[in-house]
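The protein record quoted for completeness.
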Amino acid sequence: MRENDDCREVHAKMRKAGWLCAKGMHTEGTMIVFLEGLLWTLRFLTGASIFSFINVVIYRLPEGESLVRGRSHCRSCGHVLSAGELIPCISYLLLRGRCSACGERIAARYFWIECAGGAAFCCCAAAFTYGTASLISVQGLTVFAYLAVLAAAAGIDRDTQIICDCFQWMILALGVCAVWLFPETGLLERGIGAVVISVPMLLLTLLIPGAFGGGDIKLAAVSGWFLGAKAVVVGTFFAFLLGGGYAIWMLAGKKLGRKDRFAFGPFLAAGYTAAVFAGERIADWYIGLL
């Protein structure tokens, strides 16, 4: 009888120890999931904050205003925004898209650009690893910087139909960094990428004046150097699909005439953004079908 009691006691201790171990593993797993969620939230807010500054660039640069001086304010009444009104994405939702002082509607594109920045940072972290800082790698940060420049160029082009040369120089500088950060894309492929789209666009513009703006041609050239030949071809293809669809829709709605021009930079930016993540894979898939 004593042996049976001892056996039951031992089995009870073993079951208790197993339960405690399982509970500990469950708690540890929950903590890991929580920390992962916290890191992805931090990544999103980091990207959204940077693209919030891109909103400032899009608005102030064409106006000739300083990018670093002067606090953000309502464009209608001049109300200076408080810290609580400058939280990326969240403040727009809390304010219901209106100025807290005058009630004037805030353009929704500010909110969507911030959301796009958060999504872009997360995508870059996922596609190009997290790096030693557990936030994003140097490669991912370089690609994110390229996407931020594209967003600024696209936003200003949409408003003014001008792509500033400063953005071309920024992308070219990032392309120089990419030579070392992405050695799998060789110099020859980058050189071909710089001319494979931009030169035909230039020739077509010489034959048909106004076919493309000079900023579009230069953007294709520097993006071709940054992305490489295969990715820039795929990205430009997407840009023409999007731009062509937009033109057909605007013509059908009689919002554009046959001789009217529209900004093509936003479509190039959208196409090259897609090409960053999937351009080479799509090109290889297509070549494999031939």
In short: The chain has a mean pLDDT of 86. Residues 252 and 258 are 11 Å apart (CA to CA). DSSP finds ten helices and no strands in the chain. Residues 30-136 form one domain.
